[in-house]
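Below is how a single chain appears once it has passed through the pipeline. First comes the sequence as given, then the structure the pipeline wrote out for it. We keep one example in the README because the format questions we get most often are answered faster by looking than by reading.
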Amino acid sequence: MAYLLYNFFLFGSGALLFFTSSWAICPERCECQHVQHILCANRGLRAVPKAPQVDHAKDVRVFGLAGNFIHNLSAFDFMRYGNLIRLNLQFNQIRNIHPKAFEKLSMLEELYLGNNLISTVQPGTLQSLKKLTILYSNNNDIKDFISEPFSHLNSLVKLRLDGNLIEFLKESVFKGLTNLMCLHLESNQLRHIDRNAFARLSKLQFLNLSDNKQTELRDIFMFSHLKSLTTLLIAGNQIRHIGNHVFQNLKKLAKISLSHNKISKLDNEALKGLARVKEFKIDRNELTGIPAGLLDPLERIEHLDFSDNHISRVDPGAFDHLSHLNILKLKNNRLMNLSGGIFATNGVLFHVELNGNNWICDCRMEKLKRWMTHAHSQGKLLTVFVRCLHPPVLAGKYLDYVSNSQLGNMSGHCESEHQPMESRGAVVESPALKEEREKREGEKHGDVGVQGDEGEQGLVTTLERKKKRKLVSSRPRPTAGKTGNGSLSDFSTTMATFLTGHNHSTFAWAPQEQFNLPLQDRAKHHDSRIEVITNACQFNHHSILNVSVEDVTSSTATVHWSTTPDVGLVHGKELLFRVLFDRFGHAFRFPRYVYTDGSDQAVTLQELRPDSTYITCVESVVGGALCQVAPRDHCTGFVTPLPSVTSEVNLQLVTVAALAANALLLLLVGGVWLGHVLKRRIRSRKSSTHAHVRHMYSTRHPFRSTVATTCVSSEFSGYQSGRQLAEEGDLIQFPGDRFFDNSHAQRDDDVIMLRYSD
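Resulting structure:
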């Protein structure tokens, strides 16, 4: 009993001593659950509370005073807390800090002064904080630094000065922060940064300069000393221009953000030195294009964001060297088309954002669609939203759901890239074709022009053209006629209006009499001064004759044409013909065409619609190149008739008869099969009835059953175990009289004497 009382006394004494000591060091209105922690956050304090005893205050390591109404820090507030490691003064109303307020805090490692009203830091205020590693002074009213407030903070690793009013960074402001790794300067008013402001920050890894007032980045020495920098954020400024070699020495930079500026120009070598950058954001700027070679220094880029710019042009080779690119964002720009092979070298690209652009869904988008379809099929690409804006008939549709036939070229050619003959659209316009087109446009406006190359066709004056037009207008208008089996009423005038109204160049519809001229006369009708045919435009204009349509049915039609004797003047180039056809008045121009050999001058069009008006044109392909100008001179129209009612009835009768014959055949086969099954079942039942053993094993009547060819019946399973009986010698031989003896001993002996012949 005495022992228990002694222990109780010791425990009570210890508890009393603990509570006495805790009470002794714990300021009023604070909590001291741990001897080394004083927590006074959100207590409504207007001044820093003082500890009652000096000896116990030295043991305090953490002092929390956040969320109070403290206005000033005097020289005596923390004099007793010489061993503090963390001091939190955030979210107060501190305006003034005495220069000696932290004089005794030589062990302090973390100081939090953020979200106060501090406007300046007096010289020497932080001088004694030799071991300070983290300093928060964010969201204050600091506008300028007097002297060098951070000059003695050699151990500082993280510094937050964001959310202040700093306008200038002088050369020596950070000169003592040789170990600084993270610097926050965002949300200030920075207009000028001295080229040597970051000169001593050789270990800096994170720098945030976002939401300031910077207008340009041209000084190549500004970031030249930041050799350890991995993240650079300069978003939300007013930068308009980025000069060459600005980031050249940032060898370890992995992320850079230039978002939400006013950048309209990047110099050709502005990104040089960023070989290790994996994420580059330059969205919400005013860029108008991405030229070739600009992004080549980004050898390891994985995430590239050009969203919300004014980009209307991307060079086909802009992304050629970005083999590690995973994410590309080009949404909300002014793109109308993209080269089909623009992503050919980006083998690991899986996320592309192209929505919000002015996409024109024509033949220039075929290769892009093909690439998207191929990447989707292999599971390498997330959904890409390319929503057509033009032409109006495709407005609102996504490229994935537009067929290749719908990606027709509205203007008759694709100017953006050289496409092969099997793609929709012509090749790039050569200088000769361009000259030819310009001369024809000059004719259209009534000026003196040259038909073809100078010296080959000669000049055609305005008077001669007027005479030709007068000749055409003086001829009688063709009346309603027929082409093949289809009727065509006043089709020449209607077709001329169609061809004139739906194309960029205006051509007079050739008179019907001209198509009916013989081959020799038609050749004379053309300009005889042409000597050499060098391109498809010349061949179309001078050598294709007498386009006509014959053998028109409800679904087919045969197109015939002829050529002049000067076909051989095509200098050894491969000559083909292309026959285009489309329904008259259809929104798309010639979504269907057929190629034929140069020796063939007729082709049969298939899969036509009945009772429809069609237009068909013939053009040449010389050396794999088409003419940029649509072949309006060699077009004709035809109407497909309705399907014959008799043929429909006959087809229906034939179909019904075929179905009936098939049904009878199935019934016959089913009956034969059912009879065969029933016959087999009857036989199996007969064979399963027990026959007299004498008859089964009589030597005079050898046993030959169907069972012998397959497997032993149920009666012999105990003897033969499924063994096949292929020969008479395989049968069991028994004396016939033994089966009439009722002696069990004899039967047992018989069993013992069983003999198998192998």
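The CA atoms of residues 140 and 215 lie 24 Å apart.

See the next section for the split statistics.
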